[in-house]
Amino acid sequence: MQTNIIVAMDQNSGIGKDNKIPWRLNEDMKTFKSLTKGNCIVMGRKTFESIGRPLKNRINIVLTEKKDYKQKGVLVANDVSDVLNIMKEYGDKDLFVCGGSRVYRSFMPLADNIYITLVSIKCDCDTHFVYEQSYLWNEAKWKYDKTIFLQRKNEKNEYNSRMLLFKRAN
Ligand SMILES: NC(=O)c1ccc[n+]([C@@H]2O[C@H](COP(=O)([O-])OP(=O)(O)OC[C@H]3O[C@@H](n4cnc5c(N)ncnc54)[C@H](OP(=O)(O)O)[C@@H]3O)[C@@H](O)[C@H]2O)c1
Fold first, then answer.
1. Cα(50) to centroid(ligand 1), Å
2. What is the b/e burial string over 4-30, where b = at least 16 CB atoms within 10 angstroms of the residue's CB?
3. How far is the CA of 63 from the centre of ligand 1 (A)?
4. CATH top-level class of 3-168
């Protein structure tokens, strides 16, 4: 099993505002879908509630400290070790960590890969990724692997954006 962080952030490491993602990027959504399809995704309770439904064709895991939390079509985990136990049942699948902030922080030490979409804008975000972009360019920790897409602003993509893949060094 590979553990993948997947995140889109602005030039200030912003990822969200008012419990929503503050941009519309069709290419990023398409790539998110194709990478995560058939795999397991884990997200925080607020991100799940902001989407409002499980994402189809994947195992949806929602992290919450609420012991009695139940939602149709999702598996509930109360901490990281619950997520890892669930993953044992899906040994052939990879895990994609889909945010938000605390969820990224919790899984960063376990991550094999980081798919990061850099959005060319400074939004007034209220939620941020745990690390600034410069952290990923520290070759002792992360190695740039490839560019997954490079998308110019157009009618379906509000801002210029590019998704990069970093792999853990060692
Ligand atoms: N740009 C992106 O790539 C991206 C991706 C995802 C989300 N977002 C944005 O980020 C914002 C939401 O993120 P957020 O950080 O506010 O909230 P969040 O991480 O989605 O949810 C936070 C909640 O998740 C639960 N949780 C998180 N880590 C946990 C852990 N280690 N163990 C147990 N429970 C845990 C807790 O739920 P309980 O309170 O129920 O205990 C916590 O209050 C929204 O604006 C969303 O649109 C952006």
1. 10
2. bbbbbbbeebbbbeeeebbbebebbee
3. 8
4. alpha beta
Which atom of ligand 1 is the closest one to the Cα of 43? 20
Residue ranges per structural domain of the chain: 3-168
Where are the extended beta strands (E) located within 45-141? 59-63, 75-77, 95-97, 113-119, 127-128
pLDDT tens-digit profile, the chain (170 residues)? 999 999 999 999 999 999 999 999 999 999 999 999 999 999 999 999 999 999 999 999 999 999 999 999 999 999 999 999 999 999 899 999 999 999 999 999 999 999 999 999 999 999 999 888 888 888 889 999 999 999 999 999 999 999 999 999 97
Q: Is 64 in the pocket of ligand 1 (CB under 6 A)?
A: yes
Given a contact cutoff of 8 angstroms between Cβ atoms, the answer to whether 24 and 158 are in contact is yes
Q: What is the pTM of this model?
A: 0.97
Residue in the block written with tokens 């490839």: 146
Spatial contact of 12 and 128, defined as CB atoms under 8 Å apart: yes
Query: What are the structure tokens assigned to 106, written together?
Result: 């919790």
Query: What is the rounded CA–CA span in Å between residue 23 and residue 21?
Result: 6
